[in-house]
Specification:
The structure is a homodimer of 453-residue chains. With 453 residues, chain A is an alpha/beta fold. The first copy, chain A, contains 16 helices and 11 strands. Chain A has helices at 3-17, 29-42, 83-90, 133-140, 158-163, 197-207, 247-259, 268-279, 282-289, 291-296, 303-311, 317-340, 355-360, 364-369, 375-378, 408-422, and strands spanning 23-26, 53-57, 94-99, 146-151, 166-169, 189-194, 236-238, 263-264, 343-347, 381-390, 396-404. In chain A, strands 1-3-2-4-6-5-10-11-9-7-8 form an 11-stranded mixed β-sheet, with helices on both faces. In chain A, α1 runs antiparallel to α2 (29-42) and α8 runs antiparallel to α12 (317-340). Chain A is globular and about 55 Å long.
Chain lengths: 453, 453
């Protein structure tokens, strides 16, 4: 497809899907078509994302477009692109718009926004998942090929699960957080939604890179974004999650575990760390990032967001250090785990709540949604959320493969195999998954060439 | 010297020095001589510290001996040695006793203890420095060859400066903190006092090692305790510290900077981080470690320690995260610094207060003492404190060479050269420094042999 064809397809899909709540800002049709025409005239020039449409979660800066973080009263218009966005544009990608989110990326439901609630692509009575609700829906509805989200507690994975697409949660610090509205600065990362594991990884390859201006940036110890050859006998860990999940989720998870020959381990220390994110000190990190808004203009906040941010005000540092020490222990536990296993397979979310459930209880279902996702960044893991089937009532179920920091390339073949085993189409589009990457092994009529220098 | 000769020399030196305040527990003479006799009968058996007398700061466990941390009401008797102590005993070292400290290692003066104040070996009217007061004095008085201390804010460096000896502040996490009473767990390290840089490094070589039971333990990325060859043209950074120091300290520091050809840099972000240790969240980490004592038996605490620990109770986590972000920036600044410089040279302490000053103001002079030391662990640095001369009135002045984590071996030749340039004798003993290690280059009649395998 050419850039113009991509642009026209994106506009058509958006019109057909007709969900205004995906967008906080959509580029005008004319601007999209103009840009596509320019790209087409220029030709690819070796750009890996030439003409590919994408959207950006509205807590990431795009020059000249307001950044709202889901809070109109907070909005500002940045003069420069976030480095991740700049790299995408330089790679030839076609910017379509900024997407809706749980305000300040605080939530996993996708309903905490004054810009409406993006529609779950499978069932309008279910939540879309958040906080990157609009970005995930834009991919799941086939409007764009990929989207930038963010992931602190699971915002880049839960909405992937509820949209039947892939969510790549990169290693914290691998992508610059400059130009990103902070949630919990120490554990925030930009994330990628895409149609397949390898397309997500290809996007991370474009946007990743050390940024000396970002105090939480880290240098990769090796080329972590190269897809590894498939492991001959992957050692995958699983957990007894049935008591924490809806039966249909537990059933799909069992099937996924069977497919990957997973062996049971104890994850109680990770589950304990997960609770620390909102019930421990890190909620105060959110409060710290927004204390000016909270102090001076609390009325501009979504009521639920305000409740959460206020809960961070009274926490005591003396308790925080207990949590930091617990987390340190959990990180050590993760080291032990990944010394013995290539990956940990978990359900992405224990259930998918309905909109009505969340209206009735704005905090409870949301908290439960983070059961399996909250600890990944705290414990310095990377991973993929991929669809692993549907409940009998059609609710999508997601599985999550986690590895240590910098394992994106190593996990890719495993995550891709899992994805392709349990999903044939992208989100709710009915379109088949993009073709798998070329096989690791040579065909009978091929010859290996090694080039040095 | 044989173990028996070492033992007799230690007992004689202790008797001659006659400072009971060095000790919280001293092994009985008979026990020391018995152990020395056994060691002597066994022969060295390749043990690198065969018969060498040492002492242990009384916040580190020695099996069967009470650990008080300077607080009798807190004391317990451990059944097992801290790994660092176990390794020393296995290396043949001769345990002499447990030493006095600022209670719970909270202080840099050496006066906050119910066990008295160890006498400054140069001037009885000056503080000995702390918190590892007894350990530093035992080396400075020639009772033992080396001592274990600890260093969170500067406890392993300030008393080295005030005793005219070497204080090695290892990389946090390089030595197991199991069996160590926590001050600020995330930035505590066991430290070494010795007569020379290379003797200190040799001790660290014995006690260092990864401990999976210690959640803050780290694996060295390379053999960091091997003394490097001297750098042909070391690039040393210095700072304009005159406004922060007594004139005599500034003068000695200028001389040291001249000797190392140091070039000026801006250290304001490090100085800001330094203030965070007691004026920021980390004081609450101390409180967290001792909240049971503070809550149930506050009367067992030294009044000054109690005041400090109580100041950690009311700190808010929302403010802590601001400090964590500032620190992260300072760590990045340290990376930049050590990309351009081999080491940062600073005064160890800006002045040496008198006992009377500290009685008059228990908090102020102590706070000022940490000006240059407080940030090292927070910013993940390693380094050496070495004597760099005396003020005209005989007050000892110390210099500190700091490098990044895991730079102990790389800094050693530089720190040793600095030490030998400005000091001829060990502490107040009048004994010459131990001989320098063999030269890096070959003598005319030597041949290089490279053994592989």
């Amino acid at each position: 497809m050419t850039p113009m064809q991509h642009a026209e397809a994106a506009l058509a899909a958006d019109a057909a899907h007709a969900d205004a709540a995906i967008w906080i800002h959509r580029q005008p049709d004319a601007a999209i078509l103009d840009r596509a025409r320019t790209l087409e005239a220029e030709g690819p020039r070796g750009r890996p994302l030439w003409g590919i449409p994408f959207v950006v979660k509205d807590n990431i800066d795009v020059a000249g477009v307001p950044t709202t973080a889901g809070c109109p009263g907070y909005a500002y218009t940045p003069a420069v692109d976030a480095p991740a966005v700049r790299r995408l544009l330089e790679a030839g990608a076609l910017f379509i718009g900024k997407t809706n989110l749980d305000q300040f990326a605080t939530g996993l439901v996708g309903t905490r926004s004054p810009y409406g609630v993006p529609r779950n692509v499978f069932d309008p009575e279910l939540v879309p998942g958040g906080s990157s609700s609009g970005s995930a829906c834009a991919v799941a509805a086939g409007i764009v090929r990929f989207a930038l989200g963010t992931d602190t507690a699971g915002s880049g994975r839960v909405p992937a699960a509820f949209g039947g697409i892939v969510g790549l949660k990169p290693t914290v610090g691998s992508i610059s957080a400059t130009g990103l509205v902070p949630a919990c600065r120490s554990v925030d990362t930009i994330s990628v939604f895409a149609r397949s594991v390898d397309e997500a990884l290809a996007v991370q390859r474009v946007i990743a890179g050390f940024d000396g201006q970002d105090p939480y940036a880290r240098r990769p110890p090796y080329p972590h974004l190269r897809r590894s050859a498939a492991l001959p006998a992957p050692r995958v860990a699983m957990a007894d999650v049935a008591p924490l999940c809806e039966p249909a989720v537990a059933a799909a998870y069992r099937q996924a575990c069977g497919f990957l020959n997973a062996a049971p381990i104890d994850i109680s220390l990770f589950l304990e760390s997960a609770r620390l994110l909102y019930e421990g000190p890190w909620v105060a990190e959110r409060t710290a990032a927004l204390r000016d808004v909270l102090g001076r203009r609390p009325d501009v906040l979504h009521p639920t967001t305000r409740t959460i941010l206020e809960s961070g005000l009274d926490r005591r540092t003396v308790d925080a250090f207990d949590a930091f020490h617990t987390l340190r222990q959990a990180r050590r536990e993760a080291e032990h785990l990944f010394a013995r296993h290539d990956a940990l397979l978990l359900p992405t979310a224990p259930f998918c709540p309905s909109l009505a459930e969340v209206v009735a209880d704005p905090l409870g279902p949301n908290r439960r949604l983070g059961t399996f996702t909250n600890f990944a960044n705290l414990c310095d893991m990377a991973g993929y959320a991929v669809p692993i089937g549907f409940a009998p009532d059609g609710t999508p179920v997601g599985g999550m493969l986690l590895g240590p920091a910098w394992s994106e390339g190593r996990l890719a073949p495993l995550a891709d195999a899992l994805h392709r085993r349990f999903a044939a189409t992208v989100g709710a589009t009915g379109h088949p998954l993009p073709p798998p990457p070329p096989p690791d092994t040579l065909a009978a009529d091929e010859t290996a060439l090694f080039c040095i220098g």
